[in-house]
Each structure stands twice: as structure tokens, then as C-alpha cells.
Design a protein that fits this description.
The complex is a heterotrimer of chains A (356), B (207) and C (630).
Chain A: H1 6-21, H2 37-70, H3 73-76, H4 89-117, E1 135-142, E2 145-150, E3 155-158, E4 160-164, E5 168-175, E6 180-184, E7 188-193, E8 199-204, E9 217-221, E10 234-239, H5 241-252, H6 266-274, E11 302-303, E12 307-308, H7 311-319, H8 321-324, H9 339-350
Parallel strand pairs in A: 1-5, 4-10
Antiparallel strand pairs in A: 1-2, 2-3, 5-8, 6-7, 6-9, 9-10, 11-12
Chain B: H1 20-50, H2 62-65, H3 68-93, H4 97-127, H5 136-166, H6 176-206
Chain C: H1 12-21, H2 25-53, H3 64-98, H4 107-126, H5 142-147, H6 152-180, H7 193-224, H8 239-272, H9 279-292, H10 308-336, H11 345-368, H12 370-376, H13 380-410, H14 416-442, H15 459-487, E1 521-522, H16 528-534, E2 542-543, E3 550-552, H17 558-575, H18 583-603, E4 609-611, H19 613-624
Helix pairs in contact in C: 2-3, 2-4, 2-15, 3-4, 3-6, 3-8, 3-13, 4-6, 4-17, 6-7, 6-17, 7-8, 7-9, 8-10, 8-13, 9-10, 10-11, 11-13, 11-14, 13-14, 14-15, 17-18
Classes of the chains: A alpha+beta (356), B mainly alpha (207), C mainly alpha (630).
Chain lengths: 356, 207, 630
């Protein structure tokens, strides 16, 4: 990687260039190319505060450099004795009042947005028939995976959040074991999932995720939650409203779907014997499962949140989850499986899909 | 340091602060008490946020558990002990060492009485099933009242040490600040109890 | 011990005994400095391991569990066991001299404070060898801390409880010292700024450490004695821990940064050869920062879900802190303005500090904007921010002050040439490491991750950041080399090493005798030594009293014994949940040792001893040759 000192000059130049040109990061995870009203408003606040802070930093730096350049003893001579000044009331007032004004200017949008983002009254609004008007998702964070329940639709999924574009999506956030934090950087700020209470907030998803590199936005856990905190990723699939409705209908159609121990398919048989206690294969239900719901596994983007979506990854995961996500709660919950069984069950799980 | 023999006439006005060491102790105990107030504030806040909180279907609550008569007797004992320690300081000002020792001893007796009642109270709660590990409420209650109880124990040991150690040497500028600091600490314990009585017992019983 | 300090040629055993029992603020200052440097090096090494792990994506240099232990111990050690003792080192060494005192108000407690801190720190570090270090972050959030298996968290709780008690004791000690022991004429508004910041910092310690003590105690009984404070199934609430921790944790930042401000306020006027600009507003700003420091803790909890009103109040309160901090920065700049700046190593650190700290400060204000913080919180942006404040503000102050005060503390001067190299390598490494992390955070990288997947746009910046960390490590190694080389250099035996000293500590000749000033100085104004010097007073001070006997405190081994008792008791508490039969007896034994030592202390009179005039004259002649301190 380091082939000698000559490369360093190029390297540092490259570094500076990157800061200015591509410091925005990847569209599916960076906060600097936000989608949706919440993320955009936070981004605007970022730009606004950076502008004020850059102004302050520049003024201070110029004053400081000027003062230093003029006052160097090497210029003034070794014996120069400066005037011993006590202070200046005028200056004190100036540098007290100006920062206060700048902070007041920053405080106004801060306060407006704070109240705006906390406004979740619309969660409880109902139409004439008593149906909730807004889409609500109950998020449960568990040791190293995420469960997403759609209470009005009666469906539940895991690891991949599916939401429609251009409407406020409300979230009820809770942790099942230890504290986590729910963060989709490209869409908006985070909110903690506590163990003893439900936090509520909303996000808006400005565009469909299909054109993104992996076809999804990335979500992260932002609160240290144990060894595999870094691997507690989830993905967000954003569809237009029609697409979302179709997805909901497809999920609802999986009602009653299960794996049978009597099946002739070794994969399904193995799944029924070893996995079904924790992993459901029907999307109809509520949160509270021991393990992630696998109804849509074949449609997902990653295995275990971080591995490439392939049968091979899945086999590796089933063989030894501990080597991939240390501290996970799946290790040791099922009996020893032969290579043949693992391969078959991987095929079975990869085949679970509600999309064509 | 040669010990000067004092008489009530030569005894300085603010004997507890007459030496640098005395002054240091005087300022030090006050700063320590400031610090201890934050300690109790934290424990109080914890208690208030966990009051009546427990596992689903917990049978104990502040309203049903606490009994005012016992708490009232304890309050009276401690308030009286505060008064007796004031008498001791009054005698300290007048260089009446015997008075100091007697009133400090009475303070200790009253403090012991308080402690006995507190131990009885704790024993009673544990006996009816409200033990330290029973619920968040019980943990918070025992921690708050127990922290105060621990302060009482420390105060008693401190004062007893002073009484015993100085019994044969009389009052001088070396030990006067020690008595004074112990008495300030004792008042502080008393004030904290008034808050415990109000917040835990009165507000607990009256809802 | 009487006048034993006169003779320098003591055996190793006697010297060791002297340091184990000493109550001399100067020796304790040195002990704090070396203990702090030791833990700084350990924590720095942990940071280096973490940066090496994060240098490339999907690295497996350290495992996930080990990484969490490293990040926890790095944060905990740096804040509690490195920065705090290093600053205490300077406070001990300098403050009594600055106010013209013989020692601190309670020399015995000063020693106790050190030993509690040191044994608590050792206890915490033993966790590495006894089944694993704490791994729930330095914030130790309750749900994860209760869930964490093994004894790591128990070591954290007990170790910090012990060392925290030491810090609290030292804090109270400094307040009393500064209130009661100032030399005649040293009014509050003539106190040097480092003394002022020590006073305010000690006040912050007094009020901030008890909530931590309570929080740690609740965690202790929850983990070891089955209490239910944080177990929500039993009615507990983990948010209580967050509040208690941050009511302590935020002032802790000011506990560290205020003395750093004070040190720079000493360094800058000396090398600008100019009176500190706006002294009274500097004092006012210090007090205001200390006060506001208690009003803002919940800005660490913006995403916890406290509600809009709480977030709004704490956002505005947090922004308000920028005002007094800004006042300080402008005052430092105006001190330089029109002065005559000599760029020595301490001044280099001060000059590097100003822009770095401003950069760290403005990102702090950005995070005070709660809605924006929803994005920045727990991302690498916050990592960048607080390292800018802590490294750019506190570590530069410590390194600069090492060079600045080494002559007073050790009667030797650190090498300037090596110092300049250290500064530039460390400074460039620091910006290289942390500037880029702002962008990592904005690009969506959460903090406290042991690894990251490739192709999320983070690879290059993480690599650059790790290179910077290596540079910082080289800088620290150079500093240690400098210290070792200097130990062999010739003693200075001089007064006012830098030539432009202003406050009283420069008026005394080095090596400083164990009783400090032979006569208490009389202070006639702010910057008393500068005043006397420019009034043509060759001795540098005038005295408030004739030469007479000096009353000094006795050395004592009891502080060490008390601390060892706590150390032993901690092992008992730690192994209690394992059902070990010896656990409770060991706990009781340890507490008995401590209480026993306290009772011995209280019934055995400690009246100190007197240094007689003849001994003083002899000591001064021994130290400075014929004529003594003239």
C-alpha cells in the first residue's frame, strides 16, 4: 500500500482533493446527499451552521495570525518591552454581543425544527372508518437484528424495512434486550431504541431506492450494543405507493405459510426441525419473534445484515454464526447440521420470496 | 505544638477558627457538605423516579407501606439530637469542656436511639417481603434511607472517637475545630432526614 | 522525619519509603505526573491498536470483543486516569507556589487522594489479566452494562468508585487551600488564572463527582447484589444511569478543560511578555463556564427521547457556553496582540491550541443544534469533535505545561529542539487523524464500530486517519525520550527560567525547598513577581514575615494503607456474585483495614513538626550554595 515516500505527495494531494470533491460519500448512506424532507431540513441546518461557524473560525484565525505575525520577538528585537494593557471594556462587549447574536440566529431554526421533528400527533389520526391515516412501523431492535412490524397491515418483516415514498412514515422504536439506536443516515437523524419506553418519530423517504447501487438505503445501529454493534446493519427498500401496496398485499397473502417436517424437500424438513422455532416464514403476524422473520429472505440484499446475498454466505452463516457476528443469539440454538442439510436449508431459505 | 492551657477568659471568640488548621477544617467540612448535598440530591432523584415501580403486580406501595408514627418518633429523636449538639457547641464557646462532653454524649445516645428504630423498621420491611432486591422501589428506598443511616453511623463513630480521645486532655485549639466540624456534620444529617421524612414518608403516605 | 529532606543521598529503600509516605505537594505533583503519563501511554497505545484495526475495511487485527474493551478502556483511562492526574500534577506542583502557601490545606488528604486514584486505576487495569476489561464504552450505558458477561464492568465500577473518591478528596482540598491559604495581599482578584481555574475546577469536582458515585453505586449493587435500579422488568429504568452519568460527565469535560485554559493563560503572557488581557473577564468567563457546565448535560441525550421541550432548552443552554469560551479565545489573542512573542515549545503548543480549540468549539455548537445532532450524534463527527477539544485543548496544554513547568518541578529543562519536533509531528498527526473524521461521520459512519464494510465511501478517510494516529504515537514517544534524556541533564539551579515569569512560582529558586518560601511573600498586586522584578527588587519578592520557624506536616503511611484496604475490599465485592465463600470476608477485611486506619488517624495526634531557623539557613545553603536563596 505504501510504496515509498514519493507516493506521499501524490497521496496527500489526493486526500485534499477528495475532501473537496467527493467528501459527500455514497448516496445510499451519506447524510450529505439526503433524500426526504427530514434529512434535507437537517442538511440545510448543517449548511447554515457550517456557514456561521466558518465565519467565526475565519475571523478568529485572521485576527490570531495577524496578531502573531506582528508580535514576533524575532521581528521586534530581544529587548522590546510591550505595553502592559489591562483590557478593554469596548472589546469585551463586542465579542460578547456578536456571538450572542450569531447564536440567536442559529437558535431560531434549531428550535423550529426540534418541535417539528417531535410532532407525532398524526400517528393517532383516523379517517371516518376508524382506520389510521398515517403509516406506522413498529421497530424492535434486538441483539444484532431489526424487526419491523406494520400493525395496521398485520404484517411483520425483519432486516429490510419497506416503505413508500413521499409520505410521513411514523416509527415506534423499542429495544428488546439492550439499548440500540435506529439510524438511516441518508434519510434523516437517529432515535434511540430504549428498553423501557417507546420512542416515536417520523421520517420521509424522498425517492425510490431502486436506482441506488444495491437498490436499498443503508441503515445502522448507532449505539454501542455489544461485540457485533458494527454489524447490526439493516436495509431500506423505498417503493412508490403502488409498489408498496403490492408488497403489503403479497406479504398478507403469505398468511399461514409454514415449513413442514414431513416435507420431501430436505431443506424444508431441516428448516422445520431446526429453524422454525425462531424463524417464521409467514409475513403475517406481530413483533416479538426470537429470530428474524424469513418470509422475504430471497428478496433481500444481504445475509445477516452484512454478508453478500448468496447461498455460500448463508451456508457459512448457518455453519458458524459466531464467527461472523460474535455475541449473536442464534449460536447454539439448533443442533448440529450436516453439510448436506446446510446446503439444502440454504436453498430453501434463499427460495423464500414474495417478489416475482 | 505546646498545648496552651486556656481558661474561659483567655479562650478566643471563634476558637474553632483560631488556627489555620481550624479554619481549614471549618471551610473543608462545609465544602464537603456541599458535595454531600449533590450526593443526596442524586439519590433522592433516583428514589422519586423509581417510587412505587416494581415488577408487574407488585403489592407494595409507599402509601400502604410507610407508617407515620414511627417515622415521627425517629424525626423527633434526630431533631432533639441536633439541639443537644447545639448545647455542646454553646459550651465549647464558653470553654466548658465538661458541658461539651456531656451534651455530645447525649447526642450520641439520641442518635443510637434513631439508629435502633431504623434498624427495626428495615427488619420489619424485610420480614414482610419488602427486601432490597424485591423491586426497583425497594432498592431505591433502602438506598436512600440507608445512605442516610450510613451517615448517621459515621457521625456517631466520629463523635464517639472525639469524646473518648479527648476525655482526659480538655479543650484546646487543636480539638475544638474537630468538635465543631463533627457538630456541623451532625446538623447536616439532621437536615437530610427532614427531607427524607417529607419526601419519603409524608409524601408517601399522603400520596 | 525532621530535617531529613536536607540530605539528598538516601538509599533506594529510604527514597521509596519517602515517596510512599510523603504529604509534600511537590512530590505528590511529580507522582501524579508520572502516574498520569503511564496511563496516558497505555490509553494511547489502545487508541493506536484501534486505529490499526480500522485502517482498512473488514480488518481482523483485533476481534470485536477486544475492540470494545479497547474503546472502553481508552476513553475511561484517558479521562479519569490520564488527563485528570496529569492536570492534578500541575495543580499540586504549581498552585501552592502561586498563592505563596507552604502546602495544601490537608496534606494528609492530598496523599490519600493520590493513592486512592492510583490503586483504583491499578485495580481497573487488572481487569485485562483477570478475565477481560470492561466493554460497554466509557459511558457504560446501563442496559448493555448489565447484559455484559464476565467481570469487566465490575472492574470499571469499582475501579472508578475508588479513584473517583480520590479525585473528590483532592478537589475539596484545593478549594480549601485556595480559600484559606493565600499569602497576605493575594486577594481573589490577584490570583493567577491557573489558580482560579483550579478553584473552579475543584468546585465542579465537588458537585459533579457525587452523581457519578451514586450512579456507580447503583450499577454496583445491580450487578453484584441483585438490586433493580436498571432492570426494567423489575421496575428499574436505564435512563436514570444516562442522567446521572452525564450530570457528572458533562462537567467532567470542563473539569479537564478549565485547568488547561488556566495553563495557557499562564504560558501566553510569559512568552508574549505582556499582561493577560482582560483578566477580570477571564475570571468571569471561567466562573460562567463552570456554572453553565451543569446546565447542559442532556445535550448528550438528544436522541434518547426526552421530548422536544427538553431538547430545546438544553440546545439553547449549550449554545450559551460558546459565549464565555469565545471571550477567553479573544482575550488570548489580544494578549498576543502588541506583545513580543517568543516562540518556545510551550508557546508553540499555545499557538497550536488556539485554532485547534476554536475548530473543536464550533463543531460543538453545531451539535448543540438538536435536530442537526440527530444526524451527528454517535457518528464519527462527534468523535472528531471531542478529540479536537480534548487533544487540541487539554493534551496540548499538558504537553506545553510539561515544558513550561519542568524547571520548577524537576530543576531541569526539557530539550527545546526535541520539543519542537515533538510538537510538529504530534500536531500534524492530530489534525490528520481527526479532521477527516468529521467527514466520516457526515458520510454515515457510526462511532464505536470495530470494523466496516468496504465500498461505503469510508475506506480512504479511515486510512488517512490511521496514518495520523501513527504520527501522534511517534510524537508521544519523542516526548518520553525527551523526558529520559532530560533526567540525565545538569540541574538548573536558577530562578525564573524563562526570563519573563510573572506569578509567584517563578520567584522561588529551584530546586524548591520542601517548605517552599522560607518566608511567606507579601503580594502587592496582580503578577506579583513581574511587579517586584520591574520595581528593581532583585530577590523577586518582599516578605510578609521575618524569618522564623516553619510548621510542617508529618509524613504518613496511613493514606496508602487506607487505599489498600479499599483495593482489597473491591476484590471481595467483585467476586461476590460468583458465589465464592471468601468474597464477603475479603470485602469486610478490606473495609476493616480502611476504617482501622481512619480510627488510628483520628485518635493519634498529628501535630506536625517545626523547621527551625538554623535548619532553614542550612537547607538553603545546601541547595543554593553560600548565601542561600539570594
Amino acid at each position: 500500500m505504501m510504496k515509498g515516500l514519493k507516493k506521499w505527495r501524490l497521496f496527500s494531494l489526493l486526500a485534499v482533493m477528495t475532501v473537496f470533491l467527493s467528501a459527500c460519500g455514497e448516496e445510499y448512506i451519506t447524510t450529505l446527499k439526503p433524500t426526504g424532507a427530514v434529512g434535507k431540513e437537517q442538511f440545510n441546518l448543517l449548511l447554515f451552521s457550517i456557514a456561521i461557524m466558518a465565519l467565526v473560525t475565519i475571523v478568529v484565525s485572521v485576527l490570531y495570525l495577524y496578531a502573531f505575525m506582528k508580535a514576533r520577538r524575532s521581528k521586534l528585537g530581544e529587548d522590546y518591552m510591550p505595553k502592559q494593557v489591562e483590557g478593554s471594556h469596548t472589546l469585551e462587549v463586542i465579542w460578547t454581543v456578536i456571538p450572542i447574536i450569531l447564536l440567536l440566529i442559529l437558535a431560531v431554526p434549531t428550535l423550529i425544527s426540534t418541535y417539528k421533528f417531535a410532532d407525532v400527533k398524526a400517528m393517532d389520526e383516523v379517517d371516518e372508518e376508524g382506520n389510521k391515516t398515517a403509516l406506522t412501523v413498529n421497530v424492535t431492535a434486538k441483539l444484532y437484528w431489526w424487526e419491523f412490524e406494520y400493525p395496521e397491515q398485520g404484517i411483520v418483516t425483519a432486516q429490510e424495512l419497506v416503505v413508500p415514498t413521499d409520505e410521513k412514515v411514523y416509527f415506534n422504536l423499542k429495544a428488546a434486550d439492550v439499548k440500540h439506536s435506529f439510524w438511516i443516515p441518508a434519510v434523516g437523524g437517529k432515535m434511540d431504541t430504549n428498553v423501557e419506553n417507546v420512542n416515536k418519530f417520523y421520517l420521509e423517504f424522498g425517492k425510490e431506492s431502486a436506482d441506488l447501487k444495491d437498490g436499498v438505503f443503508y441503515g445502522k445501529c448507532a449505539e454501542l450494543c455489544g461485540p457485533s454493534h458494527a454489524l447490526m446493519d439493516f436495509k431500506v427498500k423505498v417503493l412508490d405507493r403502488d409498489g408498496f401496496n403490492d408488497w403489503v398485499a403479497a406479504m398478507q397473502a403469505t398468511e399461514g405459510q409454514t415449513a413442514s417436517a414431513e416435507s420431501t424437500d430436505l431443506g424444508e424438513q431441516t428448516f422445520a426441525n431446526s429453524c422454525l422455532m425462531c424463524h417464521a416464514v409467514s409475513g403475517v403476524g406481530a413483533s416479538g419473534a426470537m429470530g428474524p422473520n424469513l418470509t422475504t429472505f430471497g428478496d433481500r440484499n444481504r445475509v445477516a445484515g452484512v454478508l453478500e446475498h448468496s447461498k455460500e454466505s448463508l451456508e457459512n452463516w448457518v455453519k458458524d454464526p459466531e464467527s461472523i457476528k460474535p455475541g449473536n443469539l442464534m449460536t447454539g440454538k439448533y443442533g448440529e447440521l450436516s453439510d448436506e442439510e446446510i446446503s439444502a436449508v440454504a436453498d430453501y431459505i434463499m427460495g423464500l420470496s414474495i417478489e416475482e | 505544638m505546646e498545648e496552651t492551657k486556656f481558661t474561659p477568659q483567655t479562650w478566643p471568640d471563634k476558637a474553632e477558627q483560631a488556627t489555620l488548621e481550624g479554619k481549614n477544617k471549618f471551610v473543608g467540612i462545609w465544602i464537603f457538605i456541599c458535595s454531600d448535598i449533590t450526593l443526596f440530591a442524586s439519590v433522592f432523584a433516583t428514589y422519586l423516579s423509581l417510587k412505587d415501580k416494581g415488577p408487574a403486580g407488585m403489592e407494595f406501595s409507599a402509601a400502604s407501606l410507610f407508617e407515620l408514627p414511627l417515622a415521627f418518633v425517629m424525626t423527633m429523636l434526630l431533631l432533639t439530637s441536633s439541639l443537644t449538639s447545639v448545647y455542646a457547641m454553646y459550651h465549647l464557646k464558653n470553654h466548658n469542656f465538661k458541658g461539651v462532653q456531656i451534651w455530645m454524649s447525649i447526642t450520641v445516645l439520641l442518635g443510637l436511639g434513631f439508629l435502633a428504630l431504623e434498624i427495626y423498621e428495615f427488619y420489619h420491611y424485610v420480614h414482610i417481603g419488602f427486601g432490597y432486591t424485591q423491586s426497583a422501589f425497594s432498592s431505591a428506598f433502602f438506598t436512600l434511607v440507608g445512605t442516610h443511616g450510613l451517615h448517621v453511623v459515621i457521625g456517631l463513630v466520629w463523635i464517639v472517637c472525639l469524646i473518648v480521645r479527648n476525655a482526659k486532655r480538655g479543650l484546646n485549639l487543636y480539638n475544638a475545630p474537630k468538635y465543631y466540624a463533627a457538630s456541623i456534620f451532625w446538623h447536616f444529617i439532621d437536615v437530610i432526614w427532614v427531607f427524607i421524612f417529607t419526601v419519603v414518608y409524608l409524601m408517601g403516605v399522603l400520596g | 522525619m525532621s530535617s531529613a529532606a536536607v540530605t539528598n543521598n538516601k538509599g533506594f529503600g529510604a527514597t521509596l519509603w519517602d515517596y510512599l509516605t510523603t504529604v509534600d505537594h511537590k512530590k505528590l505533583g511529580v507522582m501524579y505526573l508520572f502516574a498520569g503519563t503511564l496511563f496516558f501511554a497505555i490509553a494511547g497505545f489502545e487508541a493506536l491498536l484501534m486505529r490499526l484495526q480500522l485502517m482498512i475495511p473488514n480488518n481482523d487485527f483485533v476481534s470485536a470483543g477486544t475492540f470494545n474493551e479497547l474503546l472502553t478502556m481508552h476513553g475511561t483511562t484517558m479521562l479519569f486516569l490520564a488527563a485528570t492526574p496529569l492536570l492534578f500534577g500541575f495543580m499540586n506542583a504549581v498552585v501552592p507556589l502561586q498563592i505563596g502557601a507552604r502546602d495544601v490545606a490537608f496534606p494528609f488528604l492530598n496523599s490519600l487522594g493520590f493513592w486512592l486514584f492510583f490503586l483504583g486505576a491499578i485495580f481497573l487495569h487488572l481487569s485485562f489479566f483477570l478475565g477481560g476489561a470492561p466493554d460497554a464504552g466509557w459511558t457504560n450505558y446501563a442496559s448493555l452494562a448489565l447484559y455484559s458477561p464476565g467481570h469487566g464492568i465490575d472492574f470499571y465500577v469499582l475501579g472508578l468508585q475508588i479513584s473517583g473518591a480520590g479525585t473528590l478528596i483532592s478537589g475539596i482540598n484545593f478549594i480549601v487551600t485556595i480559600i484559606t491559604m493565600r499569602a497576605p495581599g493575594m486577594t481573589f482578584m490577584r490570583m493567577p488564572l491557573f489558580t482560579w481555574t483550579t478553584l473552579i475546577t475543584s468546585a465542579l469536582i465537588t458537585f459533579a463527582f457525587p452523581p457519578l458515585t451514586v450512579g456507580l453505586f447503583l450499577m454496583l449493587v445491580d450487578r453484584m447484589f441483585d438490586a433493580n435500579f436498571f432492570d426494567h422488568t423489575m421496575g428499574g429504568n436505564t435512563i436514570i444511569w444516562e442522567h446521572l452519568f452525564w450530570i457528572f460527565g458533562h462537567p467532567e469535560v470542563y473539569i479537564l478543560v478549565l485547568p488547561a485554559f488556566g495553563l495557557f493563560s499562564e504560558i501566553i503572557p510569559v512568552f508574549a511578555r505582556k499582561r493577560l488581557f482582560g483578566y477580570s473577564s477571564m475570571v468571569f468567563a471561567t466562573i460562567l463556564i463552570g456554572f453553565l457546565g451543569f446546565m447542559v448535560w442532556a445535550h448528550h441525550m438528544f436522541t434518547t427521547g426526552l421530548g422536544a421541550t427538553a431538547n430545546a432548552i438544553f440546545a439553547v443552554a449549550t449554545m450559551a457556553i460558546a459565549v464565555p469560551t469565545g471571550m477567553k479565545v479573544f482575550n488570548w489573542i489580544m494578549t498576543i496582540w502588541g506583545g513580543s512573542v517568543k516562540v518556545t515549545v510551550p508557546m508553540l503548543y499555545a499557538l497550536g491550541f488556539i485554532p485547534s480549540f476554536v475548530a473543536g468549539g464550533v463543531t460543538g455548537v453545531m451539535q448543540a443544534a438538536a435536530p442537526l445532532d440527530y444526524q451527528l450524534h454517535d457518528s464519527y463527527f462527534i468523535v472528531a469533535h471531542f478529540h479536537y477539544v480534548i487533544v487540541g485543548g487539554i493534551v496540548t496544554a499538558i504537553f506545553g505545561s510539561m515544558h513550561f513547568y519542568w524547571p520548577i518541578m524537576f530543576n531541569r529543562a526539557l530539550s527545546e529542539k526535541l520539543g519542537v519536533w515533538t510538537f510538529w509531528i504530534f500536531f500534524i498527526g492530530f489534525h490528520c487523524t481527526f479532521f477527516i473524521q468529521h467527514f466520516l461521520g457526515l458520510m454515515g459512519m457510526p462511532r464505536r464500530v470495530f470494523t466496516y464494510q468496504a465500498d461505503q465511501g469510508w475506506d480512504l478517510f479511515n486510512f488517512i486517519s490511521s496514518i495520523g494516529a501513527i504520527l501522534m504515537a511517534i510524537g508521544v514517544v519523542l516526548l518520553v525520550i525527551n523526558i529520559i534524556i532530560t533526567a540525565k541533564s545538569k540541574p538548573l539551579n536558577c530562578r525564573d527560567y524563562w526570563g519573563d515569569g510573572r506569578s509567584l512560582e517563578w520567584a522561588i529558586k529551584t530546586p524548591v525547598p520542601f517548605y517552599n518560601f522560607k518566608q511567606t511573600p507579601l503580594v502587592r498586586g496582580y503578577d506579583p513577581y513581574w511587579l517586584e522584578k520591574h520595581d528593581g527588587n532583585k530577590e523577586g519578592m518582599i516578605y510578609a514575615e521575618p524569618l522564623g520557624d516553619i510548621h510542617m506536616p508529618n509524613n504518613s503511611i496511613l493514606p496508602l494503607v487506607m487505599s489498600i484496604g479499599m483495593f482489597v475490599a473491591a476484590f471481595g465485592a467483585l467476586y461476590h456474585p460468583d458465589g465464592k465463600a471468601w468474597a464477603i470476608p475479603v470485602l469486610i477485611l478490606g473495609l476493616a483495614i480502611t476504617v482501622g486506619a481512619m480510627i488510628v488517624r483520628s485518635v493519634k495526634d498529628d501535630l506536625g513538626f517545626h523547621v527551625h531557623v538554623e535548619e532553614i539557613v542550612a537547607t538553603e545553603e545546601h541547595l543554593y550554595g553560600n548565601g542561600g536563596n539570594k
